[in-house]
Amino acid sequence: MRVRPAFGLLTAVTVALAVSGCETPAPSEPGDPSATPTSSASSASAADPAAAQALGQATAALGNTSFKITMTSGPSFKLTGQMDAPGGKGSAELTATGTNTEFHVLTRLAGQDLYVQVPGVTKGTTWTRIDMTRLPEGNTLGLKPGQIDPANAAQLLSSTTDVRQVDPRKFEGSLDLTKAVGLAGVDQKSIQTYGATAQKVPFTAGLDEQGRLSALTIQLPAVQGKQAQPLEVLYTDYGVTVPDVRPAPAEVVEAPNDLYSTLGGK
After folding, report:
1. What is the total count of domains within the chain?
2. Handedness of CA 266, 73, 93, 155 (dihedral sign)
3. Residue 261 and residue 121: Cα distance in Å, rounded?
4. According to the model, what pLDDT value does residue 36 have?
């Protein structure tokens, strides 16, 4: 079965679509140009060290506290979750919508163990445990041991090729997606299709009242002349209590070998 991913939807969706023999929708036509970052960010020729440092500090909270996250890319991709970085646990729900098709993928991370419920893979209320060591580097199901943030914002924003601080709570600049690993919604195969444009992708970032990262918007490059929907990430509810997410042993089955093959693993 062949899958035509729409600008690199989360790998879990690719699995679901592959199992079901469906295709994801094509990228949408260009939207309102006013929604894109201002040209001043994309025209900056070099990074502002002070701005880059301030943005890095704002992102640091994602690694030392808990939070909720919402990721969207147009009407076809939505991921919501709650993460506890110090506790090494989290849960996420992905909804992918295609033509007369909708999938819901659940993911749970508990320490070094990753569990998923994927339509056509898991049965009933059971959970499939994934051995991440069998997957290629950068392959993510939204959550993974050692990366509690599905957007991997801390690593992603370290790949800025230029950044400036517009005001105390807003940054603009460009990202080098070829250096990004583990960004849910954008896999490495998709990055390769972007070509040279992947090295300078516009973004905007916003902070909350306490100076923590609250919003990140990435203007994904056009593919085959069609503009992809922006990837938008919201961080809220810092300090939220994240419950224990590990399934009961009786509810867990090991992932079959063909699932790893579908994911490009071994």
Report:
1. 1
2. positive
3. 13
4. 39
CA distance 147 to 122: 24
74-124 pLDDT per residue, tens: 888 899 999 999 999 999 998 888 788 888 889 999 988 999 998 877 888
Question: Please, how many CA atoms are within 13 Å of residue 189, restricted to the half-sphere of its CB?
Answer: 15
- Angstrom CA distances, 16 to 72, 102, 118, stand at 18, 10, 6
- Cβ contacts of 143 within 8 Å, gap of 6 or more: 81, 83, 90, 91, 92, 107, 108, 109, 114, 150
pTM, two decimals, is 0.80
DSSP lists the bridge partners of residue 233 as: 71, 216
Q: Is 146 left (phi over 0), alpha (psi -120 to 50) or beta?
A: left
- Smallest CA-to-CA distance from 203 within 220, 226, 222, 183 is with 220
Longest CA–CA span in the chain (Å) reads 56
Q: Which helix (H) or strand (E) holds 101?
A: strand 101-110
Interior/surface letters 73-97, b for 16+ CB within 10 angstroms, e for the rest: bbebbbbbbbbbbeeebbbbebebb
Single-letter amino acid, residue 85: A
Instruction: Report yes or no on 76 lying in a domain.
Output: yes
Q: Most confidently modeled of 29-38, 113-122, 257-266?
A: 113-122
**What single letter denotes the amino acid at residue 83?**
M
* Whole-angstrom distance, CA of residue 233 vs CA of residue 70: 6
In a domain, 185, yes or no: yes
CATH of the domain at 254: 2.50.20.20
Mean pLDDT of 170-177: 92
Mean pLDDT of the chain: 78
pLDDT in tens, 122-166: 888 899 998 888 877 666 667 888 888 888 888 888 878 789 999
Domain that holds residue 19: 11-27+37-262
